[in-house]
Amino acid sequence: MSAFEDLGLLRAYVAIVECGSISAGARQLKISQPTLSRQLRALEELSGAALLRRDTHRMSVTEAGQRLLADAKALLTQAEEADRRLHENDTTLSGHLRLFATVDLGQWVVTKIVSRFLQENPKVTATLALANRPLHMIQEGCDVGILPGKITDESVIARPAGSIVLHLAAAPSLVQSRPAVQTPADLKSWPWISLAGSQFWSAREITLYNREGREQTLHYSPVLISEGVTSVREAARDGLGVALLPDWLIRDELAAGELVPVLPRWQAKNLPVHVVYAGQRILPRRVSAFIDFAVRELMAYQKQG
């Protein structure tokens, strides 16, 4: 028998460590202290190593104990999720979703998707975290993320969910104050506004493609770099400079004439969008259902655009 075959022993060990003592762990598990001590000794015998160091003042976890603790927590989580899936109602989703997205996409697009999902599944609740630096949020306990741009976390599974069309745009006042542009090189002397975050696109260069397949890369020094694409749009609308902006964010401004396309025959590559989640976990039905729902909604949203 190995140390990982008895979930009861693993649960006892995790309780001792998290509670800080055998007596506190016994109270949490509602068993006697001698019983919990026997379980700890049995687990140490199966492990072939001491897991805890104990003296009269404190308890500490050994190096072997740290390794076992991480694996034990993962196994217990998977077992709990598997049991929950086994007993879940076949038709009703329930429980809490921990979601994250980049700030602007989260506010403008993802919030609407989450809202529709919750309305269709009234026994599900959700927390939506918004951050433009979402590295390792899956490891921090989130279930699902919706992210534009390159995926830099190799520990997640990333399901493609379409792409975002990007446009060069500027305020009419800026365009009218400059000579007409025919090629990307004509924009080199223009003031530029950029989005921070290398996972989106470069803040200091842009590669554009025309319908004949030609490409040109333009290097520039932005007058403003912002972490929020809504902020970039507002600065462009005020006439500060030209900017690369997602179509979903500037549709109304283009229709109203508050922004105008710049060099429309040349375009940047579309920005991919992914729904990301942890591959090593057994997913609760509410999580797998939301993943499928989010992918469908994102694809439909882009077709509407």
Describe the structure.
- 40% of the residues lie in helices and 24% in strands.
- With 305 residues, the protein is an alpha/beta fold.
- The protein has three domains: 7-87, Orthogonal Bundle (Arc Repressor Mutant, subunit A), CATH 1.10.10.10; 95-164 and 272-304, D-Maltodextrin-Binding Protein, domain 2; 166-269, D-Maltodextrin-Binding Protein, domain 2, CATH 3.40.190.290.
- Strands 4-3-5-15-6 form a five-stranded mixed β-sheet, covered by helices on one side.
- Strand 9 and strand 10 form a beta hairpin.
- Helix 1 crosses helix 4 (63-87) and helix 5 (103-120) packs across helix 9.
- The protein is elongated and about 85 Å long.
- The protein starts with 6 loop residues before the first helix and ends with a helix.
Give structural attributes.
alpha/beta; D-Maltodextrin-Binding Protein, domain 2; 5-stranded mixed beta sheet; 24% strand; elongated; 9 helices; 305 residues; Arc Repressor Mutant, subunit A; 3 domains; 40% helix
Q: Rg from C-alpha positions?
A: 26 Å
Report the end-to-end length measured between terminal Cα atoms: 59 Å
Total E-strand runs? 15
Spatial order of strands in the largest sheet:
4-3-5-15-6
Which runs of at least 5 residues are low in confidence (pLDDT < 50)?
none
The figure for the number of domains is 3
Residue fraction in strands: 15-25%
Strand pairing plus helix content: what structural class? alpha/beta
Provide the helix percentage: 40-55%
Shape: elongated
CATH class identity of the largest domain: Alpha Beta
CATH architecture of the largest domain: 3-Layer(aba) Sandwich
Largest sheet: 5 strands, mixed
